[in-house]
């Protein structure tokens, strides 16, 4: 009996085909394109475009997550007996989605490690190349006069005694550029964190669908095993019934023989007595008839005496 409100799989096959062949492959292709652009712009050091591609990838991941929710809702509208077939039809889409999730998580991890490593290198460079201005008083070559000052930044050195202008504006520009690069890296790292959160949410949606499919597969496997066990039990019962029928037939024959012997013994004895009595009566009757017949015969003549005169 069909459940109320549940649809057969054939009623939702068109929508399922759109999910499997159009919507999900399209969004997975967009994710691949954004990933390739992120890698390319990152290699060129274009942080702004990397950030833009991260935003687009996050938006596509959210759309893909919504598609998985819609697919799961469609599955709940199908009859439970069709869930196994439904899961088989969506298996490829779920596998491709998982592959994209794992791929993005790998890219995020490698990119974040590279950003952290670059930030540490920049920090070490700034600490090893400080801008120091040292002024000392005293003579030059043992002669008193103006004080000598030095501005040190790496290999750049200026002295007031020779009238060389210090490179303070250049140092300020380098410092500002480093600050901009640091902020850009922070924005990119923040973008990776946001994208990672969205990919994790996508993975959670995928996991819910996968768990439902695995549970259904286990139930089907358990049901199949139960059916096989029941079939074996039925076969064994049939064999036992056949043996019982053969034993029952033999026992019935034996019981019939015993009952016949038990009932036929007295009946045979009675029949034998009756037959013996009848035979005795018949013999007596035959004897009586024979005696009467003998009595009715004429008496026999005495034999004649021999005539001796004729002989002489």
From TrEMBL:
Organism name: Parnassius mnemosyne (clouded apollo)
Xref: Pfam families: STX17_N
Name of this protein: STX17-like N-terminal domain-containing protein
Domain STX17-like N-terminal residues, every copy: 10-107
Domain of life: Eukaryota
